[in-house]
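Protein of interest.
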Amino acid sequence: MNYEGVGALLDRAVQPRVLTIEPGTLVLFRGRNSIHRVSPNESDKTRMLVVLAYITEPGVELSESARMAFYGRLN
């Protein structure tokens, strides 16, 4: 975790990088480890989100909130 970098950003000691992208652009990043936000979807097209997850330890499961977000159900 980049606590120093996050603190600097929140204290406005550094400026965030802003991506200028065209509609339909694929952006890959580590969302869990990156402060990020997205602009609202103002078009009639659905915004597609894909989550890639790799768990290397056996027996690790998604939390209930993550299962609801990804699958819309707990079972």
